[in-house]
Amino acid sequence: MTRAARSRRVFYVEEPIFGEAPDHLVTRQDPSGVVVVTPHIEIGHSPAQSQTRTARLLAEFVEDEGLEVYDLWVYTPMELPITAGLRPRVTVYDCMDELANFKGASPELRAREAQLFAQADLVFTGGHRLYEAKCKQHASAHPFPSSVDTAHFAQARTRRSTEQGDAADQRDVPRPRLGFYGVIDERFDIALVGELARRRPEWQFVLLGPVVKIDPADLPRGQNLHYLGMKSYTELPTYLAGWDVALLPFALNEATEFISPTKTPEYLAAGVPVVSTGIRDVIRPYGERDLVRVADGVDAFEAACAAALGEAGTPAAGERRERADRYLSTLSWDRTWAEMSALIESAATSRVAVAGVADD
Q1: Domains of the chain and any CATH numbers
Q2: Which residue blocks in the chain are alpha helix, DSSP H?
């Protein structure tokens, strides 16, 4: 969206905040150019009523802003009702995951998604595995695996090479450090990480991110397990600079079948060796290109981590980084947006042509 904001107005509608005040919208201009729109909805109404009230606010906002021609970008089918009063030129469904497979997913989600498929002109998927599923449900589905802001994460390499200060809450953690950042939920393989920590007390596991939808009491504990909480995007390179291996320890279950971890190219851009379980969109392309070690089961995952640690500082490690860098050079959020934008304009042209035929 920050790329889109360079050539068009972008309004990003956040989830509503509920309170005693009458319904209203609060807007703020992000430095990127994106305008963040936050609905404030009066408490005491049913979810459906609250969405209807939000829809009314958005329709009034579009009119007040004079938006006669605009496109609608939807991330979650569950919020489709708030768009009821909108008449977009093109509707995009940006499908980032198979949300219906997640723990606690609404039973209405599949029906809402079917409704969104019927409305959408384009479906963008967050990876190739997800595309394989969604292209059967929509005639104009297109895969867009995660890109990466290489310069941002390459700051980790600079910090490492210049021996800049470590993150304050990581500073006293011994080496070697094996790190992970992201949401710690049902997709995170608790058993795998717990057994690794038990087998390898000399390895330190640094885990960043919120614990969601699972009981924190179920997480493995030990002197070499460090849960440091959620960190901002800006802070991530500072932590990565102090890691020896970056982990993608995902469980292989319904919730992970369609994921395409954004972390994979981010870890590589930071210059940290990566070990992952067998997630389809990690295997292809990263595992197939031998940019990431892929291993399933505790024994194989432990061996892969040991191999990554043992390769540090060798010519083989440098060669692997160079290959990763060559691949990352083909990725760009600018290129991703350019391709998406072209598809949107093509869809808009097609709609005009179809409308013209209908009028005739």
Answers
A1: 4-147+333-359 (3.40.50.2000), 150-328 (3.40.50.2000)
A2: 47-64, 109-119, 128-134, 150-161, 190-199, 236-240, 263-269, 280-282, 298-311, 315-328, 333-359
